[in-house]
Amino acid sequence: MRQTTITSFFNNQKVPTKKIVIKQNIIVEINKVKVIADDITKLKVDAIVNAAKKSLLGGGGVDGAIHRAAGLELRKECRTLNGCKTGEAKITKSYNIETVKAIIHTVGPIVYDCVTEENREKLYDCYKNSLITAVDNRLRSIAFPSISTGIYGYPKYDAAIIATQAVKDFLDDEKQSKKIDEVIFVVFGEEDEEIYKELIPNVFS
Ligand code: AR6
């Protein structure tokens, strides 16, 4: 929890007027990795990742929340990007989301009947390519939603295993790891909260 004191100036005197408390619902924290239960658009972090669709023109779920919070300028920039393939990542400004420097848009795989090897590879690539994009743009902290686990139907536990493995592999690479200070898994709902609470200590301790 961070505390910020806003001050105003009256007769040249610095008078504390209001205290803002920024609450971060940290569920687990191990070294550079955190699990936070929150709306991703409310975080203070260099980059947030959007679970987008191939057109990058907005949709429901976390994509809808990010586009609503960022405003119409985001959609305008997205139109210039020529879409995004599954597993790849593209970057935009963050517009009205002022606590964030950039938005990294990635497209997760759609799971139809059951998870295929290709689904696993593409989901892994979403995390890996988003982290590479962050590093390439000197963004040192990054927050991920649980990509593909909503509308795209990826089972939550299976997806969390891939997500945590992809981040671990990245952080295990010393050259890349020194360019990242913080990776946040954003959980939006009790099921993911329980899954990540169990997985993170196993994967990152
Ligand atoms: N903050 C953090 N996580 C969230 C938020 C939020 N504000 N809102 C939802 N989630 P989904 P997908 C979680 O469906 O499965 C869109 O229409 C949610 O609980 O957003 O990759 C796109 O345009 C779930 O755990 O993304 C695509 O067409 C996770 O975010 C399609 O949906 C991902 O759920 C992408 O589907």
TrEMBL record:
Macro domain segment(s): 20-204
Protein name, per record: Macro domain-containing protein
SMART domains attached to this UniProt entry: A1pp
Pfam families with a match to the protein in the record: Macro (PF01661)
Species this protein is from: Panagrolaimus superbus
Stored CDD domains: Macro_OAADPr_deacetylase (cd02908)
Superkingdom, natural source: Eukaryota
InterPro entries: Macro_dom (IPR002589), Macro_dom-like (IPR043472)
